[in-house]
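Problem: given the chain below (216 residues), write out its structure.
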Amino acid sequence: MTPDIVFKYFPNLSNTQREQIEKLSPLYREWNAKINVISRKDEHNIYLHHVLHSLAVAKYLKEFIPSTVMDVGCGGGFPGIPLAILYPNTHFILVDSIGKKIKVAQSIAESIGLKNVTTLHCRAEEVNLKEFTQTGKVELVVSRAVTSLDNFIPWVKGKYTKGIICLKGGDIQSEIDECLKRLRISPSHFFTKDITDWFNEDYFQEKKVLFSNCYL
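Solution.
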């Protein structure tokens, strides 16, 4: 699949942004031959399954442009790198505990000329954001299919000022219910949006953007 699937939904990208997106597939394929960053059977669907999926976060944000974002469990750079392309004036901090994956994210960011990405090889709980922001917090934390909410939320508690955005699939309501029960959080702190509200491809059936402003 070509990057046209991305340009279909984001037609106003600059030439630089379009070129950066076009470079992603060959770079990830090259790395995937060395390190299993994404499923081998998924390589031909990088733009649909990984890049466009990541950019659902931007559709949720609408006109809001965050100043700082931390991508927790970024793997090879999703959703952080596509979002960093879209928001060149936002500082993205990509965090992963697996060294070889964060190495890929760093290399991809450098190869396409992203100047707004910092990569950290550590666990989310260990990140000291005072090194990067005046408040010691980012505005948003994002993630894609990292772990269950009841595990994830304690990792990033106290590290954001606006909220958490997670890309989720499957039975998200059961996951939310378990989180509410275990962490004693009010349901009013969770909001979900169907990705098919923005992207009409079949792949996004049952996939959602989840926002939480708990612990603010």
